[in-house]
Amino acid sequence: MTARRPSRAFAARAYRVLLHLLPREMRDRDGMEIEALFVEGAAASREQGILAFLGFLIASGWDVVRRAPYERWRRRGRPRGREEHMVQSFVSDLRFAARSFARQPGATALILLTLALGVAANTAVFAIVDGFFLRPFPFRQPDRLVYLNERAPTWNLDFTQINYPDFHTWRQRARAFESMALWGSSSINLADATGADRVDGLVVTYDFPKVLDIRPVLGRTFTAEEDVPNGPRVVVIGYGLWQTRLGGARDVVGKSLRINSVPHSIIGVLPPEADFPGNVQFWLPLGGDPNQPGGSYSYDGIARMKPGVSVEQARADLMNAHAPIWAATDSAHIVSPRLDPLREQFASNYRVMGKALGAGAALVLLIACANVAGAMLARSIFRRREMAVRMALGANATRVGRQLITESLALAAVAGLIGTLLGRWGLNALVAAAPDQLPGWVQLHADGRTIAFSIAVVLLTATIFGLAPALQPRRQNLAGSLAWGGGARTSGSLPQRRLLDALVVIEVALALVLLTGSGLLLRAYTNLRRVDPGFRPEGVTTFRLSPPRAKYANEVAINRIYSTLIERLEASPGVVSAGVVTCLPFSCHEGNFLQPEGASPTSDGSNPVVLVRIASPGYFETMGIQLARGRFFEPTEAKPGRPQPVVVNEEFARAKFPGVADPVGRRIVWNGDTVASRKLTIVGVVRDVKHYGLATPMRPGVYLSMAGVDSFTYRRSFGVAIRSSANPASVAATARAIVRQLDPELPLIDVRTAEAAVAQSIAPRRAMAFAFVAFGFVALALAVGGIYAVLSYVVARRRQEIGIRMALGARRSQVLRLVVRQGLRLVAFGVALGLPLALAATGSLSELLVGVSPRDPVTIGVAIALLAITAVISALVPARRAAGVDPKTALGD
Amino acid sequence: MSSDMRRHWFYILLSLAERDRHGSGIVRDVLTLTGGDLRLWPVTLYGSLDELRENSWIRELESAPADADERGHRRWFRITPQGRRALAAELERMERVVAVAQRRLAGVGEPFGEASS
């Protein structure tokens, strides 16, 4: 079999677990053969469709459960005494359960489906929560790993990234750490005989493998001597790259690899688990220079604390290590180090989502439990006579109670199996929905832990809903239950009725919580989709290029390739315009400091970082960015070495020129820079592009003209945008062909439409909203089922009373109203209970709610109305049944 | 054996009476024999095989038969002379029942085809 079949592999694993019910002797001798038969049958049944497969799984599970007690009993010879009794009665309980469920296939299927849905939601969500929050990093003693960065509140930056000289000082002075390292993301053009590729990896300091305790599978990692400015050209390659590009050859160490058109020598191969923080195909030495003054803030840090050191101690030690830097160059403490547990740092983006998903799934399961408990309770009330007969015939209360628990357990086991499978499919669907949004260290798969979790959930559920009915027979009045006639036949006692009502009220309350939550998330998502990104993505295709230094040594060469590219693109059929920019929307960030000329420092010393982009004159039109004031760049106005024209965004105008109606013509300067030729003149103001995501506020931003860059300010990596009337695939093909003509070693990076970029930027929120809508609908369906079950029960019980009413002249409509009113009463109580819960719960979602109040009355109103309407609909069926009661037959019973 | 033989046992013996088989082969053969009515699920099958071996009605082969179309690590089973006798005894019992049943069906009461109107 070529394709992987995860669902079948998983079923096989679950089946193997189930086989532990068999006696050891039998498992040892026949286990392999039994499994092989199962796998064979599973494959054959899967080909006949999903229903056949499910049927096969259930039958196979039942085969094990039914036969296992017998096999155990057979091997012990004739069992004696109590044990024999237990085994035999368990078997007969099971048989009895199977028969009694088979008598009511519809109700049984409903209960199974209900539970399975609850388990499925939990299996999928547990895998997600586990992947993000519970599963340890695959490194030695991960709790001693901490993440390092720097912060600068007055720059409006929580994470400035780390400056290499700062790190160098920390490494020399800090005492609380075993080791400390930096990494920065890097991507390279990798060219060989098979073509050019863009490959992502890291630049790391030499002690990076020591912090994570990573040992190469081949060769070695960098030495301190190699990790210096302009050091030797060496590379450590990732396991994936080794396998795919180099065929996993054992003799790769010492071979040469062309990186950015320069040969590098391979010194080692990393193990698969070294893929941190994700999608890492190589390591290059970082080669930082501790003596370079200023330097950029561009790296992430990681450190391993010494044993027994707490996070607080480590933090204090790091501050202490940083002190000389403050003393020497930063007396205002503008930049300070920060240290957080590694997991916290990496999971923080997903914390609210993870919690909300977990809570949502737990609520679904709770509702499912309440629902099943209600169904079992109603069933046990209807079965009072059966139980009474069994007890009259000599069964003791324990025996009858055990029968009921056995039934629950059998149900739970089957539902658990189906639910776990459904959950895995759901999880796969979720993972497929958000393919490249997840960091590499997050592994989302349902493994043994998930199975264990599901089993625990199922057992808990079984106990919860098995217990309530099991308690019933003890309290019953035998004579009353056995007596023929009227009420005594099916009526539950008042406390039972109350319990049933209470269960439905709880279901309605929880359903309201979920419906409100899903409504709010859905509204937030639709709001987000309506947010103006600040450009017109329709018809725009983008990609990135990164011409290497080896071939494009200076700004002249860089400008030449990009302007030629733009020219040739614009000459292609269908292309309206083309432009380039250093950071396309939602991609990179490059911050710097800019102020109005002659501006005095603000009173609080704040100086928010400005997003600096370099763009070609045609970029604005191509992206459809709107001009608010002034004009865009003229193609020829910018010249290196002269004062530069600059286009700023509205946020920049607001933040830096408060109260100025039209900042066009004003001058701005780089932080503390007095060189006249580097002054900037504002020629235009454009609308804000939501560069950091549709839900994130935009920073002040400026665009510099590409024509004005000099040998210090030029950049080599640009995003290319093409507006075209042709379809995106043919645009991409055209672009590829043109780039190949210009430089066959230059790969196109991240080719996608601008619309896809917008959609991807909100994909996690979409997945979240859809998951909750699914939860909401399941909750609604379950609550409606609960209302239906209770009212059916009530109608059955009050048949005689209704008959009498009708005989006395009650009209059909009056009877209908009577029953529907009962249903609405339950909803009313449920809403009264659920509303405060919902308000409390949605408050914690506020972080995810864009443009919607957590107490949005419309959403809450719609949720309540939805519950009420569906309650009426579900009440109508039993109500019509009641109204159709023939007084004669009802009274004749 | 005077009482009825278990259905699983009967069909397993019947299947092995034709030739040596492995577990999967028995399952398939019994499905065919019964027109899809009786599927021997894995645990039931191996439990029954063990019981039949305890009765010495079948035995396990040391290795796959030389002419086997499927090799591999499968375990093969062969019916023993005692097994054949047991199967024959069961067939005899069934024949007696069949004979009685046919006599009775042909006797008093409404004949076939006219029972319903």
What's the helix and strand layout?
The complex is a heterodimer of chains A (893) and B (117).
Chain A: H1 6-18, H2 24-47, H3 50-75, H4 81-103, H5 105-134, E1 145-151, E2 162-163, H6 164-173, E3 177-192, E4 195-204, H7 208-212, E5 218-219, E6 234-237, H8 239-245, E7 256-259, E8 262-269, E9 282-285, E10 297-305, H9 311-329, E11 336-341, H10 342-347, H11 351-382, H12 384-392, H13 397-433, H14 448-471, H15 478-482, H16 494-530, E12 540-545, H17 555-570, E13 575-581, E14 591-592, E15 594-596, E16 610-615, H18 619-623, E17 627-630, E18 644-649, H19 650-656, E19 667-670, E20 680-686, E21 701-705, E22 718-724, H20 728-742, E23 749-753, H21 754-761, H22 763-797, H23 799-807, H24 812-843, H25 857-883, H26 887-892
Parallel strand pairs in A: 4-9, 6-8, 16-21, 18-20
Antiparallel strand pairs in A: 1-10, 1-11, 2-10, 3-4, 3-7, 3-10, 5-8, 6-9, 7-8, 12-22, 12-23, 13-22, 14-16, 15-19, 17-20, 18-21, 19-20
Chain B: H1 7-18, E1 21-22, H2 23-33, H3 42-54, E2 58-60, E3 76-79, H4 81-106
Helix pairs in contact in B: 1-2, 1-4
